[in-house]
## 1
Amino acid sequence: MELILRDGRLPNGEAVDIGLEGGVIRAVEPNLKAEAGQEMSLAGQLISPPFVESHIHLDSALTAGQPRWNQSGTLFEGIEIWGDRKQSLTLEDVKERAIATLKLQAQQGVLFVRSHADVSEPSLTALKALLEVRDAVKDWIAVQVVAFPQDGLYGSPKNLELMEEALKLGADAVGGIPHYEMTREDGVQSVHQIFELAQRYDRLIDIHCDEIDDDQSRFLEVVAACAVRSGLGSRVTASHTTAFASYNNAYATKLMGLLGRSNINFIANPLINITLQGRADTYPKRRGVTRVKELWQRGLNVSLGHDCIQDPWYNLGTGNMLDVASMAVHVCQMTGQDEIAACYDMITTNGANTLALGEAYGLDVGKPANLIVLDADSPYEAIRRRATVTHVFSRGKLLVETKPAEVRWR
Ligand code: FE2
């Protein structure tokens, strides 16, 4: 072996040694009887598959305040500000910010990222830049790019053409925003169109779906029905689905049955949902986060995303997935021990399912040696303390090391 990590603890509590060689995990067992060029003692620290950022907008990241700050804090002011900012996008501008953001994520344990790229501006600058970034960083972090029609697939006559161009250029997934289309009919039609494109170009689907407090916004049922009828199932993801939190329970119960049949993935973005939603409410004020706990209890695949890092919609954010999981624990009231563990799964294995990573992800023998070590002994402690990710191994190589903060009482 080139390297043996001794005395680590897996997220399920099992104590193991992990042996790496040639960029691949060669052994995962207690008291590994082997020698290595290098050994590292983890002293019972958590050793985990990397974090998966399943929903981020790298094209708008790190632009907060440009050209102005979002003072109302609403999604719609964010879309207006981004509309102005994107007039001055250049390939270099997007690439620089995207790579800076990916480094921020990687140093905190993220090695798999799904980013949306706005494809509703005529030059497709954001998309072209992110496709170049996907290639430039592929040796240390895996990026998927979703062609996302921010202004609606039918928001202007050119947008559908731009979407198709984006797929021809190599976007990994077809995106959408049905609740933002001009009419309900356009929204329904857009979902059908997205499925047609995904099948024609053999791509995944990830739709911004019902990201609104309107209890009548019901595109999730259209997405689920299309997933059932097309058989695309787990290749389909519904992001946000915040309106689901506002549906009456009679409808929600009926919908849950359909979602169970559909086998689609869900992504909640609790940091963003809790700040953007509920803005039109007085009191009681809604939380605006989808039914994460109920979807998880039903056995559906739910992952969590950061969505925004310092952009027109959210001027905070650090790229730390433990912040995201912690917010989910609070807002979704998932404070039971198994529920906290489930929130950790939502930023690791469930995210990998959403991204359809298959054999590329996990801590099994034979898999690529992507793993992280945390300054905590369990997922519970990691989330509670937002523990430092002390070591990030990408393809068997130590990519980043971070020392936990040291406190000295005088
Ligand atoms: Fe988003």
## 2
Amino acid sequence: MKIKINKNFLNLEENYLFSDINKRVNAYKEKNPNADIIRLGIGDVTLPLPKIIVDAMKKASDEMLSKDTFRGYPPEYGYDFIKEAIKDYYNRNNVSLDIESIFVSDGAKSDLGNIVDILGNNDIYIPNPVYPVYLDSNLMSGRRIHFIEGNEANNFLPMPDGLNNKPKVIYLCSPNNPTGATYNFNELAKWLEYAYKTGSLIIYDAAYEAFIVDSSPRSIYQIPNAKYVAIEVSSLSKMAGFTGVRCGYTIIPLELKANDVSLNKLWKRRQATKFNGVSYPVQRAAEAALSIEGVKACKENLDKYKENARLLSDLFDRKHIWYSGGKNSPYIWLKCPNNMKSFEFFDYLLDKANIVGTPGVGFGKFGEGYFRLTSFNTKENTIKAVERLEKLL
Ligand code: PLP
């Protein structure tokens, strides 16, 4: 063929992280077929959906059986009932949202990947280490990328100090994947102040907000005036176990304008052109998850993950090993002992304790020397892993 391709795709680095991990684990299993391997690298939820959610999905599916209640194409931005449910969910956290600012989608990944469509050729500032979608979607669009370094000195919560005063697009993820680090009110207020001062946009990923147990903001809109500078992307994946069901949402406030152009209007146009909405049963399931009863049921699952996170954090406290996360997050991000590199520690843990985690360097170069463990395995396996680590470290 002689057609031209999007050459920006050639600038993407191959992501070998998970295939590399699998290769190493499979090779180990071949040599040690009886090894009882515990996976603490799982990034997906493992507990089944609460009944209230499945019941809502079933009821909505039944409605599709009858001529009177059958539904065809959903509205591109979400049915009013789900937007109302999201608005109520935010209200309970003292955030008041305009219904028009809410866009329902099939998940945060799509929205984070697609948001580049409505933005021009800006300088992009991305924390490192972080969820890789921000980087890759901007590389695909040929943007200029700058990393904001997370390290032990800033507790993996980089701040704007030292950044220039030019307008830019800044991604923030709090609680962060992979570090579990969570910005407090003052830190987010500083980021917002910087965004006002420089005419910048913040894209705030709140996918893990439901894990927050301390007073850290669960939405950037808990900070006054954030609606003038921030988009918030969130998801039911971790909050309600929707990784397989698929539902998320993005808030683009009506107040948000770039050179007098409403970003909300642009996103409306973008979604109406390229997206045909989320299926009706899924939206009903999401509505149930966001209700007061639904949140209570989801919290029971989250509490189980949090208990696993606590077991792991307590171990690293006892061992005086530096870590972040574990409290407001399903992730524990630890410094590899004895200055081991991420993959060195991976092999060491696999060999000596039959435990699989995720090398921190897979989330960016500033993750080298660190390691991510997750709380998504069973309590039984987490306890077993803690016992092994207690002996090994
Ligand atoms: N944002 C972060 C920080 C994540 O870690 C993930 C998934 O792991 C997502 C977004 C994607 O969420 P969703 O399942 O809604 O696409």
